[in-house]
Each structure stands twice: as C-alpha cells, then as structure tokens.
Design brief:
By secondary structure, the chain is α/β, with parallel strands linked by helices. Helices cover 27% and strands 25% of the residues. It has four helices and seven strands, in the order E-H-E-H-E-E-H-E-E-E-H. A seven-stranded mixed beta sheet has the order 1-7-6-2-5-4-3. Strand 3 (62-65) and strand 4 (71-75) form a beta hairpin. Helix 1 crosses helix 2 (37-47). The longest helix has 13 residues, at 7-19. The radius of gyration is 15 Å and the shape is globular.
Length: 154
C-alpha cells in the first residue's frame, strides 16, 4: 500500500494506525534522516492515548511512554551490528507496542512478523507542503491480514 501525506495527514494516519494496535505489535520505520519517522511516532502516540512530548530516542536507544498500551520507541541507528547491546526482546515481546526507527538495520535480528513503513521525502511532486510517500509493507500473516483490513476501512 502506497500513500502520499503532508505532515498533518501523516499524523492522523499514524494515530489511526495506533488505535488498531495491540500488545506485541511491532512497527519498523525506514527512511532517510528528516523523512518524518519521529513525526510519525508523535501521531502514533496520540492513537495510544499518550499526550507527553515525544522525542527521538537517538542517544538513549529506547524511550518508554505509558498510554492505553505502553509505547516502546526505539532508534537502533547507533546500535550497529550489536543488537544484543540492549534487551530488545524485553520490548518486542513485552506488553506494549514497539516502534523501531532504522529497524531495517537489524536485518536477521528482526522478528519474522512486523509491519514496515518506508518513508520517502524525495518523491515526485514533493512540494512546500512537505509531502512524503509512505509504503506500508506487511511481514507475516498477521500484518498481511491487518493491512487488508485497514485498506478496506480507508
């Protein structure tokens, strides 16, 4: 599924997405610096009834937020080839939703099932409104079904 959003639309989409999430869900955000990954998480947090300021976890690796479900916001850019440098499994298989910026860098260390969202800020038609293209790619049966359901609601 491919969509183009300005910032306000992307925040609303992220909020809608989070409202459908359940404990144990994993969302991987892929894209260049400045593509909108952390902005997306701000909208996502609202969908989990989290109203705190959302900050990038670039230097802390993980930020936890409490809401309808806990949000584990991770940035693994600095983890490099050592995903065991923090207890990632505690988050991925915990009671909350894990959102992982730069998650594609984890490669084979990613679980089999997750939802990947690829951000492209350099799409044709990029304008002053800051449009981004988001490609939603399901990995695993749960997310394939989930994307079909979300697509039918749109």
């Amino acid at each position: 599924m491919i969509m183009k959003f300005n910032e306000a639309q992307m925040l609303k989409y992220a909020e809608h997405l989070a409202r459908a999430c359940q404990a144990g869900d994993i969302i991987v955000l892929t894209g260049e610096l400045g593509a909108g990954k952390t902005t997306f998480v701000k909208g996502f947090a609202l969908g989990l009834d989290i109203h705190q300021m959302i900050k990038s976890p670039t230097y802390t690796i993980v930020r936890e937020y409490e809401g309808r479900l806990p949000l584990y916001h991770m940035d693994v850019y600095r983890v490099g080839d050592d995903p065991d440098s923090f207890d990632m499994d505690d988050y991925l298989f915990g009671q909350g939703v894990s959102v992982i910026e730069w998650g594609e860098l984890l490669g084979k260390d990613l679980p089999q099932d997750y939802l990947e969202i690829i951000f492209d800020k350099y799409v044709d038609g990029f304008d002053a409104d800051g449009k981004r293209e988001l490609r939603v790619i399901p990995h695993g049966k749960r997310y394939q079904k989930w994307v079909l359901m979300q697509d039918n609601k749109a």
